[in-house]
Amino acid sequence: MFESLMTALGMVLDWQNFFWSLFGVTFGIIMGAIPGLSDTMAIVLLLPFTYYLGPIPSIAMLMGLSKGGNFGGSIPAILFNIPGTPQAMITTFDGYPLAKQGKSGKALKTALFASVTADTASDLVLIFLAAPVAMIALRIGPPEYSMILFFSLIIISLAASGSPCRGLISTGIGLLLATVGCDPETGTPRFNFGFIELADGISIMPMAIGLLAFSEVLLQAERWYKERNRARAEEIRLSRPGTDDDRLTPAEMKQCLPTIARSTLIGSFIGIVPGIGTTVGAYLSYIWSRKKSPYPEKFGNGALEGIAASEAGNNAVNGPNLVPLLTLGIPGNLAAALILGGFMIKGLVPGPQFMESNAPMLYALFAVLLISNLYTLIVGGIFVHYARKLTNIPKTVLFSCVMLFSFLGSYVNNSSLFDVAVMFVFGLAGYLFTKLRLSLPTMIVAFFLGSLLEHKIRQSLTISRGDWTIFIDRPIACCFFAMTVFITLFYIVRLTRGRKAVKP
C-alpha cells in the first residue's frame, strides 16, 4: 500500500494536473452561473478534449467541471432567484430573500463555505468507505429504489410548503407532467397532444427556467408596476449593503456547522445510491434542517442555515456518487455517466477489479478531488466578490437580461425553438401557480423523479410477476415504506389536532 501511495504522489505532482483541475473548476463555475448551462453541459462540451490529455489530467478537469458547476449554480439562484443548475433551486428559498435584504455577500459566502466543506467531507467518505459502502449499495434493487423515491416524494409534499394539501397538489402536477412522452416499456406515445417534440417528454431545463426564472420576471414586473416607490427603495437597499451584511462572521460559520454536518450525511447517503442525484440530496437536507431548527419560521425568509443545508446537501452527493462508479461501474447520475465516458476513453474500466489493478491511479484521483475543492474555494471566493456587484444593475435592465438568458438557456439545451415555447408556457403557468400559492420547486422535483419512480415500479412488478407484496417483502424497501406510512399518519394527526385547536 505504501508503494501505491508513493507512486500516486508522483502521478499527482505534475503541473498538468493542477492546471486542468483549475481550468475545470473555473469553467464549471462560469457554466453553472449561467441559467440553462449546467455542470453536465460543461462536461459534455469539454469531454472530447480529454482525448489529448493523460488519464489523471482529464479526470481532474472533468471532476473540476462537476464541482465548480455545482457551486456556480448557487450564484444566480441567490442574486436573481434563477437557479443556474436544477439542484440550486432549493438555494433560492433563502438565498434570494437574503439578497433582497441587502445580504447577498453573506448568502454567497455561506453557499461557498457550505459547498466546499460538504464536498471535502464527502470526498473523505469516498476515500475511506468506498469498499464497504459499495457492498450495501449492491443490495439495493428496483423495489428499494421505488420505496426510497416514494418516501422522498411524500416528505417533499408534506414538509416543503406551509400547506401539506398544496404540497400534494404540486407533487401531483409534477408527476402528471412526468408522464408526457412515450411509455417506457411499450413505446406508445402518451399525453403529447400530437407534438413530435414531446416524444421524449418535457425537457427539464426549459421547464425549470420557465417556472422559476420567467415567472419571477412577470411577478417582479407586476410588483414594480403596482408599487414603484417601494421597488425603488428596495433597489437602493440591494445596492448598498452594510459591512455586517457583506461578510460571513466566524460565529455564523459555527452556527451553520451542525446543519452542514447533518446535510453532508444525508447527501452522502443519497450519493451512494445510484440514480437519485443532487436535487433530492439538497431538498431532503433542506427539509430535515428546517425540521430540526429551533426557529423553522425563518426558513424561506432568509435563513443562513437554509442556504447551508441546500448547498451542503447537493455538494455532498459528489464524492459518494463515485462509489458505485468506481467499485461497480454504475454511474450515479448524468455527470457520473459522463465521467465514466472519460474513464472509457482512457481505456480504464471502473468495476470490482479497478481498485486492485489500478490502486496508484485511484489514490491519485482521490488527491485530485481534494485539490479541486481547494480551487473551488479560491476561484469561488473571487467570483463571490465580483458577482455581488451585479445587484447594482437597475431592475429594468436586469430583468430584461434575465428574459434574454431565459430564452437562450432554453434554446441551447436542445437547439430547439420548441423548448423556448415550452419555457414561455411554463413561465405563464408558474406565474399562475405562484398566485395560487403552489410550490414550484416541489413540482419540479416531482417531475424530475416521476419517470424514474415509474420505471423502478415497473421493474419491480416485472420481477415479482405483478405481485405488489415485493415492496414490503424486502427489508430495506419495507423500512422505507413503514417510514412513509408513519410520517403520513403523523402529519394527518397533527393537521387534525391543529384544526380542533383553531375551531373554538
Computed over alpha carbons, the radius of gyration is 22 Å
Structural class: mainly alpha
Q: Kindly, what is the distance between the CA atoms of the first and last residues, rounded to a whole number of angstroms?
A: 71 Å
Unreliable spans:
231-243
What value does the average pLDDT take?
79
Side-by-side strand order of the widest sheet? 1-2
**What is the percentage of strand-forming residues?**
under 5%
**How many DSSP H or I helices?**
24
Q: N-to-C SSE series?
A: HHHHHHHHHEEHHHHHHHHHHHHHHH
What does this structure look like?
With 504 residues, the chain is mostly helical. The chain has 24 helices and two strands. It has helices at residues 2-12, 15-33, 39-46, 55-72, 74-80, 92-100, 104-137, 142-159, 164-178, 204-226, 228-239, 243-246, 250-272, 278-292, 304-315, 322-328, 334-345, 354-357, 359-387, 395-414, 417-435, 440-464, 470-473, 475-502, and strands at residues 181-182, 189-190. The protein has a two-stranded antiparallel sheet. Helix 2 (15-33) crosses helix 3 and helix 7 runs antiparallel to helix 19 (359-387). The longest helix is centred in the first third of the chain and has 34 residues, at 104-137. The chain is globular. The model is unreliable at 231-243 (pLDDT under 50). It comes from Mailhella massiliensis. Residues 19-444 form the DUF112 domain. The chain crosses the membrane at residues 18-37, 44-65, 124-141, 148-178, 198-219, 264-288, 330-349, 361-387, 393-412, 424-450, 470-493. Keywords: Membrane, Transmembrane, Transmembrane helix. It holds the Pfam family TctA.
